[in-house]
Specification:
single chain; 524 residues; Rossmann fold; three-stranded antiparallel beta sheet; 15 helices
Length: 524
């Protein structure tokens, strides 16, 4: 209260704040997923192309998944890839296959039915995920009704670059997401995938609030000899802009997300049971039980799909083996969503400055390629582009571990580590939001000191938690704001208040060197 405003006698109360303004830490692990969902509506409202925040898989299920039919019908299938068994003249050199009655059969999908987002969301929450944004750019497209070429990369014509770019653009209005993830980007062809990744990095650089986690085309079924060709293609496709805001993981991972009840005969041959009959009831080795069950399915059995499926598994070992192969293939997922969950757990337990590495992705059980230490060297460092690829590796006695924490800007001493980039984003955005309280305040020493004290208190807390290095707070950071230090008279005249913040960010111990030396014997 200004005393000159008091005009009449009386008692007046003037409250004085006992505590200064403080910096509220922003959330560090809020991924935004862009892709295709089973549906996108809730209570009559469409959520297609609407960034929607969710806090649990139950919320995702309510908005983006099919409702289950009344019992005793089987639950609705949220994801139903279609697979075909293609007879080969000899043992296939690439892709999954099986031997039935002396003949080789490649197991290949209808590429139009392959999507990753639904299972990726499950993988995210299985790894400790919390708050997330979903941008559904559409529902599943029509199947092609035919298998793709055995051993080829999966390209789904229903996955559109324009759709994914539209979903990405919607995130320009959302400041909370800190990670961009597009699991189905690898279902585009190489050229469109490159265009999308470059757009994501440009948006990251422009907004300065999020990093993009990329998957690599070819990581699903890598060639054990020529796998570096896929790495080179990826590096050539990411461009040169915004690399410090991107990180990539290789290869894909085999998971346990889909269970036995998620795959049945409706996932084979587009649901045409007639095409399955020659495999389960061949003339040379007839199976009357399997034929009876298949005849019942064709004529409209009163049993549920799950009941018929269980009966077929019991009646035909061949059918059980086919389902096992399909389940294994359908469970191979891009690792980006799992990494989003790992990052969320790491941030919550230890802090954004802790590298999300030397830990496992929960639910991962296999890898399509087991990289050695020497092989990882070509991924981790690239002298020309500096675009580091983080490896997911298998270690005897330890299992599958995330073995890298680098950005795509591997040649930069400032930004080559992912936790450094994310820590700086966390500090920058937290201080930026707190400083908004001083917009239009007098640009004088009182305001400068208040801003310095506010940011200094925040950074001291971060230092105590282990986010900054230094024996003392003075060694960990410095905050400057004032005339003659960060501002000139012209700055004041133009309405600028400049604050200079220097921080010593903790970096991961990526290379640990032990020095051994023999010591001469000494007399007792």
């Amino acid at each position: 209260m200004i005393e000159s405003n008091i005009k009449s006698p009386g008692v007046y109360i003037n409250e004085v704040n006992g505590f200064p303004n403080s910096v509220v830490p922003v959330a560090t692990a809020v991924p935004a997923f862009i892709g295709y969902t089973p549906q996108a509506s809730y209570e009559g409202k469409s959520y297609t192309n609407v960034p929607q925040k969710i806090t649990s898989f139950a919320e995702f299920n309510a908005i983006y998944c099919y409702p289950d039919p009344p019992a005793p019908a089987s639950p609705a299938k949220q994801y139903a890839p279609s697979y075909y068994l293609v007879k080969e003249k000899s043992q296939p050199e690439k892709g999954d296959y099986m031997l039935i009655e002396g003949d080789f059969y490649s197991i290949v999908p209808d590429p139009n039915t392959i999507y990753y987002l639904y299972n990726s969301i499950k993988l995210f929450f299985e790894n400790g995920g919390g708050d997330a944004y979903i941008v559904s750019v559409g529902t599943y497209g029509a199947p092609s009704g035919k298998p793709m070429e055995p051993g080829a990369q999966i390209i789904n014509p229903n996955v559109s670059l324009a759709d994914l770019q539209g979903g990405l653009a919607l995130l320009k209005n959302e400041m909370e997401p800190t990670m961009y993830i597009c699991p189905e980007a690898t279902l585009l062809d190489v050229a469109n995938n490159s265009t999308l990744m470059q757009g994501m990095l440009l948006q990251n650089e422009d907004m300065q609030t999020a990093v993009s986690i990329f998957d690599i085309i070819g990581g699903r079924n890598p060639d054990p000899i020529m796998y570096m060709d896929d790495i080179t293609t990826f590096r050539n496709g990411t461009g040169t802009n915004g690399l410090k805001y991107g990180t990539a993981y290789y290869p894909f991972i085999g998971t346990t997300i889909m269970q036995n009840e998620d795959v049945d005969y409706t996932n084979l041959f587009g649901g045409d049971i007639k095409q399955l009959e020659p495999l389960l009831n061949p003339p040379a080795n007839p199976n009357a039980s399997a034929k009876t069950i298949m005849d019942g399915i064709s004529s409209g059995s009163d049993l549920t799909v799950q009941q018929n499926n269980n009966a077929l598994i019991n009646a035909s070992p061949v059918y059980g083996l086919i389902i096992k192969h399909i389940l294994t293939d359908a469970n191979v997922l891009p690792p980006s969503s799992g990494m989003a969950g790992v990052i969320t757990t790491t941030d919550n337990n230890e802090g954004v400055w802790k590298a999300p590495a030397n830990t496992t992705i929960v639910g991962s059980v296999s890898l399509p390629i087991r990289l050695s230490e020497a092989q990882q060297g070509g991924l981790n460092m690239d002298a020309v582009s500096g675009k580091s690829i983080n490896a997911i590796r298998f270690f005897n006695g330890l299992g599958i571990l995330v073995w890298g924490a680098r950005t795509l800007d591997g040649n930069s001493l400032d930004w080559k580590y992912l936790p450094v980039r994310r820590t700086m984003t966390f500090l920058e955005q937290s201080c930026k939001l707190a400083a908004q309280a001083y917009v239009f305040e007098p640009n004088d020493k009182n305001t400068w000191e208040a801003v310095k004290a506010m940011i200094g208190s925040f950074l001291t807390t971060i230092w105590k938690e282990g986010g900054l290095q230094g024996a003392s707070a003075a060694d960990a950071f410095s905050v400057e704001c004032g005339l003659g230090t960060t501002m000139t008279s012209e700055d004041l005249a133009n309405g600028f208040m400049k604050v200079s913040i220097k921080v010593a960010v903790v970096r991961p111990a990526e290379f640990i060197i032990l020095t051994f030396q023999q010591q001469m014997a000494k007399s007792s």
